User: Which sequence fits this backbone?
């Protein structure tokens, strides 16, 4: 869907982005992760030509993005900003309708689509006539997302979309975004400096440092097959939690004892170890029943889970 | 002519036609220049917000324009644009530029960068970003700039009357020259009201709901255009010749009022400052002007004085007038000042004026040369015996006289001197003397009689045929009323006079004011 080939951007003597190559598949959420100044935002903004590269090419859907005018290109790419970037002189409704107006949709179509998104994003229609400064940070971010999604662009770019929110709101919106069907169909490129967020939301993650893409892959690859010390150091502090989150029950299914006990709690094999651990530590059950790999269910206790995880790590 | 004290309201009622036309001219001047300033300043402000490296240069240039004194700026305009509305509008628009450019720039660069980025990322073109996001968001700041510019323009537009562009300044400066408080207020109060009203209206627009600014934006240029067009209503009349009179001359019985009542002169008249009047006549911008019979520019610009065959211009013999306090404080002052008595005739004064006004020699040098020539010059003495304060009005002849007196006092006494030259018109100079801000200044008998004493018409008529009667009358009255003493006259008679270009007067066969009236009535 998106192909980035040897992309570089120099600001004077500073090499902000250096020879980055990437391929992002359709429907995938790709997270660019790194500290500030690593070049992740610059890379993102080159995708919709807010920044023009010094060298390198970008293809979206097989088409070089320089083949069309930036305005036309951007109307087919959703964009969500850290500080929401809502127009303070437009109401919520007008903000959401910016792109459809540029695309010359009729009023009825805009209204229907707006109400559809409001419902999905848990916004009430009472907010439509308010100005953005009357909304909470979380609501502003939801409106920002609605604005990016309204024309149903196949590609969505998100620049630290939750960066300006407090931890509680952030966790809540993160969970909502994750379950939003509108987002599941889209090819998403997201920039963040938050490792948790990257592992939570990313199908694949690319870690950048000093303008270079150091390693990219699925979360488990980054954890268990780091390309170099930089990657393992970068993930070091939160390693245990990240590992438990990125390993799925299905990954260690084979090491589970082949028994079934009736249990009050059932989990899906696609869930993470972290999820199972949370159930055990909350004291809801002694053992849990894992279902959904197509075959029969299996039951495990906390001890069995931990030893299975230990085996997995040492493989 | 009403001889009782008029109230301000009486005056305004009596002059309501003039007041209205001046106010319309004033509004028109303000808004024509404002409109052009917005047309120039807004794009320029946007340009420098896009190219920040230009902002320093553009803003300092506009800032420098702002610091040029208004009168000087009007003066610079005359050689290029002549007199009348054109130079006034250009000068006003130059003053209005800085606040408009500055505020547009500040407003546009002050917009949250993420909002601009979002606008671009949504797929807006540069023009759409400007129209839909940058201008609406910067609008309150831009309007604040327009508001500042409007208030500045209403104020500066009062000076437009110096160069025959009309406006409420005609009353203000006429009133100052004529010592007529009602006339000053009749101009100043409406001018202040205009400033307040426009400021208030624009402040309302500024605070308006952001949404409605959009419609306001569309309506504003139309309103400004409508207000601007007001300027052209009053000047929709004309005559064969155009006269340019000073604000002082306009309101005087021995000026335009007398010309109309005694001669029945009907001529299209503009109000103009005397500093530019002669040149405007020479350049054929004006045909008839009100001048002074000893003015040096008379010869320089080849003008002739029309004969005052009905004697409406009273004698204007110059003499120093001194406060009694000063005569007591400086016992040698009277005899020193009287050294000049009878020494300067009309032709000498015209010659001296010619040297300063036309040859642009410094008044000090002209004064010193003259004193040496007549053998009165003495080098300065110690200057330790107290400071004598000399005043002068704001024209060449008075500067020369002030410098002559300065040298005489320093050469013949031990007093020091401080000169306060350029004290505007008669009213400012006389008030300074009456309030002990200065010790003496040269005044003219006719001015004393009419502008200061405001003698009734009958008295004026009975006195003006004889120069001694006039002098004695003002001498007695000034001492009685103000404790101010008229010393011996200097000799010359700088009377008002109507002047025309020599060539035109010959062509039309006009030698006197009566002949001019007959020509115009034809």
Assistant:
């Amino acid at each position: 869907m998106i192909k980035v080939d040897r992309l570089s951007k120099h600001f004077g003597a500073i090499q902000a982005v250096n020879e980055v190559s990437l391929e992002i598949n359709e429907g995938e959420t790709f997270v660019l992760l790194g500290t500030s100044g690593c070049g992740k935002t610059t890379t993102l903004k080159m995708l919709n030509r807010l920044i023009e590269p010094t060298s390198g090419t970008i293809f979206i859907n097989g088409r070089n993005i320089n083949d069309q005018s930036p305005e036309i290109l951007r109307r087919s790419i959703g964009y969500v900003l850290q500080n929401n970037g809502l127009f303070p002189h437009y109401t919520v409704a007008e903000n959401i309708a910016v792109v459809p107006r540029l695309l010359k949709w009729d009023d009825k179509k805009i209204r229907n689509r707006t109400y559809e998104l409001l419902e999905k994003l848990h916004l009430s229609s009472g907010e439509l006539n308010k100005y953005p400064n009357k909304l909470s940070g979380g609501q502003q971010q939801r409106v920002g997302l609605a604005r990016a999604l309204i024309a149903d662009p196949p590609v969505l770019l998100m620049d630290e979309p939750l960066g300006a929110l407090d931890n509680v709101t952030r966790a809540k919106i993160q969970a909502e975004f994750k379950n939003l069907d509108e987002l599941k169909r889209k090819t998403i490129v997201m920039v963040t400096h938050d490792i948790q967020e990257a592992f939570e939301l990313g199908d694949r993650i690319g870690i950048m440092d000093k303008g270079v893409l150091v390693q990219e892959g699925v979360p488990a690859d980054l954890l268990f097959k780091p390309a170099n010390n930089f990657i393992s150091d970068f993930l070091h502090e939160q390693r245990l939690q990240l590992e438990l989150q990125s390993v799925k029950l299905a990954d260690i299914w084979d090491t589970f004892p082949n028994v079934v006990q009736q249990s009050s709690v059932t989990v899906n094999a696609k869930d993470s170890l972290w999820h199972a651990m949370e159930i055990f530590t909350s004291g809801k059950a002694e053992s849990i029943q894992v279902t959904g790999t197509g075959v029969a269910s299996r039951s495990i206790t906390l001890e069995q889970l931990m030893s299975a995880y230990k085996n997995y790590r040492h493989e | 002519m009403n001889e009782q004290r008029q109230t301000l309201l009486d005056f305004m009622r009596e002059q309501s036609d003039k007041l209205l036309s001046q106010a319309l001219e004033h509004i028109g001047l303000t808004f024509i220049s404002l409109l052009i300033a917005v047309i120039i300043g807004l794009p320029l402000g946007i340009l420098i917000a896009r190219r920040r490296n230009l902002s320093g240069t553009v803003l300092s240039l506009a800032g420098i324009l702002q610091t040029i004194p208004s009168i000087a700026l009007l003066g610079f305009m005359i050689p290029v644009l002549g007199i009348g509305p054109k130079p006034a509008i250009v000068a006003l628009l130059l003053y209005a530029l800085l606040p408009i450019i500055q505020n547009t720039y500040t407003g546009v660069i002050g917009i949250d960068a993420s909002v601009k980025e979002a606008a671009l990322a949504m797929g807006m073109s540069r023009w759409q970003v400007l129209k839909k996001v940058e201008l609406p968001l910067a609008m309150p700041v831009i309007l604040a700039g327009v508001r500042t510019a409007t208030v500045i323009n209403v104020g500066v537009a009062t000076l437009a009357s110096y160069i025959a562009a009309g406006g409420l300044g005609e009353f203000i400066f006429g009133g100052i020259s004529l010592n007529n408080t009602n006339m000053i207020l009749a101009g100043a109060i409406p001018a202040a009201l205009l400033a307040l009203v426009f400021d208030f209206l624009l402040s309302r627009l500024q605070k308006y709901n952001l949404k409605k600014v959009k419609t306001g934006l569309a309506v504003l240029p139309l309103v400004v255009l409508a207000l601007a067009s007001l300027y052209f209503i009053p000047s929709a009349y004309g005559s064969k010749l155009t006269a340019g009179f000073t604000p002082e001359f306009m309101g005087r019985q021995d000026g335009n009022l007398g010309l109309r009542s005694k001669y029945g002169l009907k001529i299209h008249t503009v109000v103009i400052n005397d500093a530019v009047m002669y040149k405007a006549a020479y350049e054929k911008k004006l045909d008839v002007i009100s001048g002074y019979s000893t003015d040096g520019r008379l010869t320089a610009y080849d003008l002739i004085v029309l004969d005052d065959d009905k004697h409406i211009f009273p004698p204007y013999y110059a003499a120093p007038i001194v406060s009694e306090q000063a005569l007591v404080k400086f016992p040698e002052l009277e005899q020193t000042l009287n050294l000049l008595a009878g020494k300067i005739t009309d032709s000498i004064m015209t010659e001296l004026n010619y040297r300063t006004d036309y040859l642009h020699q410094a008044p000090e040098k002209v004064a010193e040369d003259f004193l040496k020539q007549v053998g009165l010059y003495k080098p300065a003495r110690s200057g330790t015996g107290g400071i004598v304060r000399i005043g002068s009005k704001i024209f060449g002849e008075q500067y020369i006289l002030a410098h002559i007196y300065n040298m005489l006092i320093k050469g013949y006494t031990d007093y020091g001197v401080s000169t306060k030259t350029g004290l505007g018109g008669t009213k400012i100079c006389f008030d300074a003397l009456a309030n002990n801000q200065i010790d003496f200044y040269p005044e003219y008998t006719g001015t004393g009689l009419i502008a200061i004493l405001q003698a009734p018409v009958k008295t004026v008529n009975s006195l003006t045929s004889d120069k001694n009667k006039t002098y004695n009358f003002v001498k007695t009255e000034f001492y009685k009323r103000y404790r101010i003493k008229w010393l011996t006259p200097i000799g010359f008679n700088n009377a008002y006079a109507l002047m025309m270009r020599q060539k035109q007067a010959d062509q039309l066969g006009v030698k006197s004011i009566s002949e001019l009236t007959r020509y115009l009535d034809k």
